[in-house]
Amino acid sequence: MTDAEQTDIVEQTDVVVMGAGVSGVQTARLLNLGDSSVNVVVLEARDRVGGRLRSPVLSGRRLDVGATWFWPNERRINALLAELNVGSYPQHLHGHMVFDDGSGSVRRAPNQLDVPSGRVVDGFEALVERMAKDLAPDTIRFDTPATSVRSADGGLTVTTSTGLIAARHVVVAMPPALAVSTIDFGGELDERVASVAAQTPVWMGGTVKVVTTYEQPFWRDEGLAGSAFSYAGPMRELHDMSGPDGEPAAIFGFCALEPTAPAPDREAIVEQMVTLFGPGAAEPTDVEIVDWRAEPFTVTPELVGLTNYRTYGHDTYQQPSLNGSLHWASTETAIEMPGHVEGALAAAERVASTIHSALAKDPV
Ligand SMILES: Cc1cc2nc3c(=O)[nH]c(=O)nc-3n(C[C@H](O)[C@H](O)[C@H](O)COP(=O)(O)OP(=O)(O)OC[C@H]3O[C@@H](n4cnc5c(N)ncnc54)[C@H](O)[C@@H]3O)c2cc1C
Questions:
Q1: How far is the CA of 69 from the centre of ligand 1 (A)?
Q2: Phi, psi (5° rounding) for residue 195?
Q3: Is the pLDDT of residue 263 over 50?
Q4: Which residue's CA is minimally distant from atom 42 of ligand 1?
Q5: Mean of pLDDT values over 207-214
Q6: Residue 141 and residue 34: Cα distance in Å, rounded?
């Protein structure tokens, strides 16, 4: 007898969504749109929604330490922001970029590092918090990771710390490689899908993102855009990350690190900021160093080195597994814009539509 069978079923529902990142919350929203009365439970391992969208308060305002931008050609995210009346503002582009080939920093014009893009006022995490408000109270169960999935009569069962939930459909709204390495599927997954999932890199899972805030966006006064590309110091690519109207003033950088190299410390960051942007960068008000490799509900150390990006949007993800009951919804599974927030929304759209059709064909 499996662990799952030993545990009593504590709840029955139409759909269990595993993960309350943007893909999971959007899947749940779409399942409940209009007259639809699909019962959904969203299991979330963390104590918050958003997953790779995280926007803590830095120097008095929420800024993104996960995803930063959306782009004008991404119709779903642009439409969602408009629908929910969530404010956005343009990425600061004006000024020269800085380049450091290891022998010191030089200005370069034009700024080749930034393209027109949008940022969410109060950060991307606030968007998912707003989306979650459309769900019935108690839909999302926080601090409740899914630990196993098994076939059962009429669907699947999902094991959590609070017991067993039976559902007709289950949605994997977390990186596929994380799902197959941390959730026990009891060997039931088809070999092909299990193998593709195990190889699918977690988008940006190996990233260390650093946000440095200042009293003033001093670089703008000096004709700099706040963007830089550097082969010296821990950060490789940097961009202006100030809030709306430059408040608070901020620059973020992506570090270029080997998968197991330690994250840089504050001293190394400030030293590089001064090399790139001059003495005005010497006294940041805040330095936030976020190592996504150390987030166990995003990635595990064994998965950081995955590189087979051809698995993104793979055809095995486009149809459900386990007799039509297990659906793949994270950004990595999307055909359009995989990796982006837009991809997560596209995947959610596909899965919600598949589940709606299945439930309509086979009402209880
Ligand atoms: C540093 C960084 C910068 C980025 N920049 C951009 C950008 O500028 N623009 C852009 O479009 N995209 C960007 N991205 C990518 C973007 O963040 C993702 O595409 C998007 O957030 C993925 O959403 P998701 O719902 O598919 O997955 P996730 O956000 O990873 O959500 C998965 C959820 O599942 C939960 N979970 C994990 N395990 C379990 C379990 N066992 N049971 C239940 N829940 C579980 C997690 O806690 C999480 O909430 C960036 C990402 C990072 C990390």
A1: 14
A2: -70, -45
A3: yes
A4: 145
A5: 98
A6: 23
- pLDDT score of 4: 45
Ligand 1 atom index nearest CA of 331: 26
First to last CA, the chain: 28
| Shortest-distance atom of ligand 1 to CA 332 | 26
Q: Which of 41, 52, 330 to mutate to test the pocket of ligand 1 (most atoms within 8 A of CB)?
A: 52
Which domains are delineated in the chain?
3-51+127-203+299-361 (3.50.50.60), 57-73+84-121+206-294 (3.90.660.10)
Ligand 1: which residue has its CA nearest to atom 35?
19
DSSP code per residue over 230-248? ESSSSEEEEEE---GGG-S
pLDDT digits (tens, 9 = 90+) for 72-89: 999 999 999 999 999 999
Which residues sit with their C-beta closer than 6 Å to ligand 1? 18-24, 43-46, 51-53, 66-70, 145-146, 173-175, 178, 182-183, 203-204, 207, 209, 292, 297-298, 330-331, 339-344
d(CA 152, CA 190): 16
Band (pLDDT 50/70/90 cuts) for residue 8 is: confident
- pTM score, whole prediction: 0.97
Spell out a b/e string for 16-25, using b for 16 or more CB atoms within 10 Å of the CB, else e.
Answer: bbbbbbbbbb
**Which backbone phi and psi does 38 adopt, to 5 degrees?**
-75, 130
Tell me which H or E stretch contains 220. helix 218-221
